[in-house]
Amino acid sequence: MSEELQPKSIADDAVVLDVREQDEWDAGHAPNAVHIPLGEVPQRLDELPEGDPLPVICRSGNRSGRAVAWLKAQGFDVANVSGGMKQWAFEGKPVVSEHNVEPTVI
């Protein structure tokens, strides 16, 4: 079982790895998130931010859970964000968007 972090335990300005698709990212994401879609993670390991552990997030926690399992197998210190961006937003954590639109989690 991978380590899980509750959104409320993560600082609002923390760097998190967001593995959702581009349209999900554009609609709304954590302010200091780094966007690397799940399918691109293996080719973009050199872009992973430092974390101790690095929180990994998606919409609900499923894709990020897969990313965490794979990254842990590669030796990375990562943790899944329980409930994903849906839980992040539900708990009132900050969400920003691209293109000056109202941020939302899709």
From TrEMBL:
- Highest taxon, organism lineage: Bacteria
Q: Which SUPFAM superfamilies match?
A: Rhodanese/Cell cycle control phosphatase
Where's the Rhodanese domain? 10-97
GO terms assigned for molecular function = transferase activity
Q: Which UniProt keywords apply?
A: Transferase
User: Which Pfam families does this entry report, sorted A to Z?
Assistant: Rhodanese
Read off the CDD domains from this record. Answer: RHOD
| PANTHER family documented for this protein | FAD-DEPENDENT OXIDOREDUCTASE, PYRIDINE NUCLEOTIDE-DISULPHIDE OXIDOREDUCTASE
What's the name of the protein? Answer: Rhodanese-related sulfurtransferase
Lineage of the species this protein comes from: Bacteria, Bacillati, Actinomycetota, Actinomycetes, Micrococcales
